Amino acid sequence: MRLSLYLSRLVIALVVTFVAAVSLLVPTAASAAPPAACTAGASPVTNSPWTVCRADINSAWVSANNSGQFHALAICKSLGYKAVTANGGTCGSVCGYCQTSGTTSCSSPGNEQYGGGGVVGEDIAGGPLLASTVQWKCSEYVGVTTTVEAKASAGGSVSPAGSQSVADGESVSYTLAPQPGYFLSAVTDTCGASGAPVGVLSGSTYDVQPKGPPNASCEVSATFSVFALNVQPSYAETYGTTLDIPLVSNGGKAPVTYAVTGGALPSGVSLMGDDVAGYRLAGALSKPGSYEFSITATDADGALSAPALIAVTVSPAPLKITANNVTLTEGEQIPVLSGSYSGFVLGDTSASLATQASFSTTATAASPPGTYPITVQGGQSDNYALSYVAGTLNILPAELAITTTDLGSMQAGKAFSLALSVSGGVPPYTWSATDADKPLPDGLRLSGEGVLSGTPTHAGDYVSRITVTDSSLAPVEFALLTTPAQTKAASVEVSQVFSGTVAAAQAMVPTPVPTVGGWALALIVATIGGFAVVGVRRRQMTQMAKD
User: Which residue pairs, CB below 8 angstroms and at least 24 apart, start in 2-11?
Assistant: First the structure.
């Protein structure tokens, strides 16, 4: 029994403390109409029923039955009044529960009578706890209010902050301000019936009109979350490539826009896009260098993200310059050397280089056949990293030709030696005279090095074929025609003579075989032989005449 009484007193004390705390937040000026007659309710904790018989801005007459217990001050405060100024009465002169019909008749309330009785303890709000009474009087009307407490998570603020009293039927507006790098991700309240939310969010303003129990309390709670750009912090690119960085935010209320808020974008790059297609940093990189800049996002409520720092390094583009190969014949002048370019971007050409590359070779017009390098050097450009590929100058040998045009004089029985000469071709050279139909004069031989030597043994006409071959294995043949002059039989002098005919003149000059066909050579030999026969016959006839 004592435990039960103790628990009851403890509950009453807690409720008194709660109501007292609420009462401290009640504003001091009336801001709403007093309750209407016949407003009914139940006493806190005991749930004993009561009815308002009359009320105005000065006071209210509250009627109850005589069998319950009533927290008069708590009931007055719930109706918007500050104090209880009278209590106690009789059933015969009040509205409500003591009438014989057993029902209330607050429209005909009767008379107010307060005898001061019925106090059985202290009210939870600090006034009298009434029993065995049917009426009390409320005064000092201040209006029905709700205490609203505003709270914000880290990353933002709610203004006005803390607690404030809101009169019945009135509303309060809160400004929700995220800190840089945060956005308002949620806001709610417990100011509706049974703690349901009733606020309306418009941009960064939250309007609340409490709908809960009179003189109760509720809470507005704003949650702020991190608002940041989800972008890669660094990029390594080359001149002429296209940079394309999509801008995507982590959080924020759509639509989210973006702006460059620090540094400078790389040359050729711009911020483009819209709310529908999205935003991006894009463009062809038109100048090497190191760039640092920051991008900030702004959501639909004006919240700013933390600036995202982006670094872009633009390196010169690779450009390869290759020397063009050149092929010429021995003795020809070296032409103007040139090259080809691989790697130009953005419409650049060789004219775009700050300094042109130069091409050179060690070969000259007097250089022998062979292969010589063509080097590239000296080009300069801020936009390109130059690399060079050497070329080749190939000097081909001149056409192979025997330059000896006259064998000189030959005489039977007299030693003879002549070093034949050659031009063009590729040394070393190999000489030979192996044509059985056109042999060397009897007594002569030809060395592989091109020396014709020996002692002629017979006077007469000879048609000899001498061949020289260079190391390229491309043979060139020439026919050397010798027609020694006829002298005394005992001593014949071999010398080169020229005939008065074309055939004889040709016969005295070395002529390349490719220009004298086999049939032409045969005709020349036959012609010379005919002249020889005629000469012999003339000498014979002369001798016979003498005899």
Answer: 11/45
